[in-house]
């Protein structure tokens, strides 16, 4: 049996001294597509931040892509993030650089040296999100949906073992949300494991999958009723 990509047991999530979530036990296996739902303020973002090393895990046990979250040191965080792809609600693209230069920035920062290999990788990830012809554009020249596709391409650059998508459709209209969701579904079909925080219940109905819910300081799996 392969090691789960993410496993938390009896974990407590804190933001400074405030307890946000308690007794969290979650397992995500390789290849799964998992939703994380819950009202604003229910702890979704704090949970995500704990997974990529922004908040320390102070209680319980937690392993993600081979890293122990309890003993994670500051110097290990860049290595953890190389094995994760993070997609943000507000895209977080560098507006003064072209799409290609945004992606080159990440490759340079994560230790790539071979220019030809970098060009090939950028072409590959842009192709996966249907943006190969837009590499010379600046983010402000793109629509919100296109910017999020670039955000997803950026998350794929280092072949992550897990993609954390934090409200990736939160700033998009319903039609564009569906288009971005189709990109994520396609990536998942190709073997990428995805944990996606969302409050867009229309997407859950359209693309049902395993669902975790944050509510009253807990995270639990929701059994979706089939129609």
Short description:
By secondary structure, the chain is of the alpha/beta class.
Q: How would you explain this protein's 3D organization?
A:
With 227 residues, this protein is of the alpha/beta class. It has a single domain, classed as P-loop containing nucleotide triphosphate hydrolases (Rossmann fold). Helix content is 33%, strand content 26%. The chain has 7 helices and 10 strands. The strands form 2 sheets. It has a 6-stranded mixed sheet with strand order 6-7-8-3-9-10, with helices on both faces. A hairpin with a 2-residue loop joins strand 1 and strand 2. Helix 4 packs across helix 5 and helix 5 packs parallel to helix 6. It starts with 5 loop residues before the first strand and ends in a 5-residue tail after the last strand.
Q: Roughly how many Å apart are the termini?
A: 33 Å
Q: How many individual helices?
A: 7
CATH topology grouping = Rossmann fold
CATH level 1 class label: Alpha Beta
Rounded average pLDDT: 94
Q: Supply the number of structural domains.
A: 1
- What value does the Rg take, in angstroms? 17 Å
Low-confidence region ranges:
none
Going by CATH, the architecture would be: 3-Layer(aba) Sandwich
What is the total tally of β strands? 10
Strand content: 25-35%
Oligomer: single chain
Strand order of the largest sheet: 6-7-8-3-9-10
Protein name: Cell division ATP-binding protein FtsE
InterPro entries: AAA+_ATPase, ABC_transporter-like_ATP-bd, ABC_transporter-like_CS, ABC_transpr_LolD-like
Function: Part of the ABC transporter FtsEX involved in cellular division. Important for assembly or stability of the septal ring.
GO molecular function: ATP binding; ATP hydrolysis activity; transmembrane transporter activity
